[in-house]
Amino acid sequence: MAGRQDAPTAVVVVGPDGMVSGWSEGGRLLLGWTAEDTVGRPVTDLLVDPPPPGFPEGYGAGPDPTGFILLRHRDGSTVDAVVTAHPLFGPDGRALGHAVTVQRWGRRPVIADRAFEQCPFALGVYDPDLRFLWINASSGRVIAHSEEQVLGRKYRELFPEFDREMFPERDDKPYTDQLAEVARTGKPARLMTVFRPLGSNYANAWATSFWPVRDAEGRVRAVANWGFDMSAEYWARQRLLLLNEATRGIGRTLDVIGTAQELARTPVPGFVDLVSVDLFDEVLRGEEPPSASAFTPGETIALRRAAEHSAKEDKEDTDRAPGPTMPVSHSPGSVAARCLATGSSMVELAAEPGEGGEWAFGPGLAADPAHWPPGNPLIDESLAAEGLTGRITVPLRARGALLGVVAFSRSDRPEAFTADDLILAEELTAKAAVAIDNARRYSRERTTALTLQRSLLLQQLPSQEAVEVASRYLPAGTGAEVGGDWFDVIPLSGARVALVVGDVVGHGLHAAASMGRLRTAVRTLADVDLPPDELLTHLDDLVIHLASDLQPAGRFQPTGEFGATCLYTVYDPVSRRFTLASAGHPLPLIISPDGTRTPVDAQPGPPLGIGGLPFEATELELPEGSLLALYTDGLVESRERDVDQRIAELLRVLNHSATSLDGLCDTVMDALLPERRTDDAALLLARTHALDPQHVADWDVVPDPSQVPLARKFTLDQLEAWGLEEASFVTELVVSELVTNAIRYGEPPIKLRLIRDSSLICEVADASSTAPHLRRARAFDEGGRGLLLVAQLTQGWGTRHTTEGKTIWCAQTLTEPEQR
What we know:
It is a single chain. The chain has 820 residues and is an alpha+beta fold. The protein contains 21 helices and 32 strands. It has a 7-stranded mixed sheet, with helices on both faces. Strands 2-1-5-4-3 form a 5-stranded antiparallel sheet. Helix 17 packs antiparallel against helix 18 and helix 20 runs antiparallel to helix 21. The longest helix has 38 residues. 35% of the residues are buried.
């Protein structure tokens, strides 16, 4: 080829008959033919294409005409040439033929030819049928063929693999189709190809441009291409894309196992074929992980496999549900144990990486130890037995805590890991480590808050006969913090019961602790037997004081706003009266025994913590067997539907004829709560009972001490009628003391009432608002021992204030309470 590139201009003498009569040495150098080969032969034997009309006569029409032709080289190849015909005449003016000068088309200085030949980019020229016309040395190294091996042969015959699609997911044309398209349309094109050169274990990324080569008449006579190896830039971009995907895809939920699975899925299959994530058991439980100083290379380390993902699962398009974590142990001296002990990453290769040549992915990086951290890579031939070509093991660290270890493995691909791959693996692990540690910390706080909240909630429904009760409380899903929803069932005097439900603003430990304080306050105020509206007024004052206590002082940070809603109701089975008051909380749903909804004509007051606004109590009379539903807004609030629609749905689900309230609670929760909820939800269902009128006895007491014996007789007669003679002695003493105090210190009217429920209740009411209190009587005092005697002989006593005065009550537990 060098001879042809440096050949001088060839001179050919053609006679009038078209026969070659003279041949220069330049012709031999340019086309390989000698004078013996050509003289006496038709000049057309040297042409590949048919000659132009009148050739060579057509070139004599003007002085020094020129044209483009394709000549045949002796070795079978073709030569693009520019010819100039010069007519020859004898002394007599007779035409003797033509002297034709032949120059290689596009002739440049020799140094220019050598510049193209030595260009570090891959250059090639092909005829319209994609036969090789010329390639430079760089192109020959890329395709692993010399110029002599490819000239005159079709691209598809030599490299059939380039007929397949390089990027099927992008619907790109095969490489050879792109060449043919340029030859057919004459339009330039560009293509990005990624392939593995022969003899290399590394994939190359090439940016290739194609353009048509035209003759003087504008016809496409060839196609040329230019290829640039941009592997370093391409793979750097792929790493950035993978890191960007990891930023979006890792840490989307505050769940330790979910985050580990996101880390396992993200690098497969773009970076590796298999990822495993092993975490300490303490991390999975939300506890503090062990200190890194606690491990030595000679110690077996027990972890749990939190996530594992392989390229095989991607090919099978499997979407398995997260399974239970599996215990794994790393033996002393293993790579994982050493990584955990030293806190450093390690790279294992199944064999020494090949040199790869200057066209290999990451030229020289794989075999150049200067780019590897000390101790890397480690050649471990045992990896081949596991079906792996390499593995990168990275300790999972965040904020100085050691959480576990991650292994990135390659099996299906032959590329050996490079130092840049190690950097990418460490970046992916670092991003995931922070997300896993955040999930661990959140899990710990949520577990603490949930434990606190459950300990503060009602653990067991108290024994009472006024209503049949069932309840459910469900915290928000794992993606949200624990809220402040709560409910309570509080037995009151006179066989009554208080049903309470509330919701504290906010989430987390603060909300759980605030909920506990409010629940305790409600129970304390309920013991005082305040009416619902007065109880909420006192509770509102308490919330205002608590909010002021939460203001930051000194270096402490504020714990957030403190507000709450509360619904407080009282049901009396004797009168079947249901009294309620609401502080910004949804009103209860009441369904009568016949299935119709009982409207609640009440106006909820402001939420607790506003202050300055009154609360109103509403009283209803309910038929026996009415169904009450008290709930928090987490049960009925939804982004898809408004509250009224959700309440209507709740009413449809509430089956008044359900025999089991527990089962009805489950039905309501399943029907109304989505799988992924963002707020707590509490539900309290109650079915009302009515006390048999035969179990209530009243007697009006005349305010005269002489009435005390009559009160005792009334009591004994009633106990005998109820079959409670065993309680006669204590009850006679209690009634005597309470009636005597009412006559002596109270105001008329005075009424004695006996109630037989699960306990025996004695009540003495009068019109005085003065509350009695216990006091210690001195040795010679004649009085002061009545209430002390009542407190000693009964299981409970107290004072209940009413609009008409007060009621003193006491209760005795019956040994064998008779069922209604």
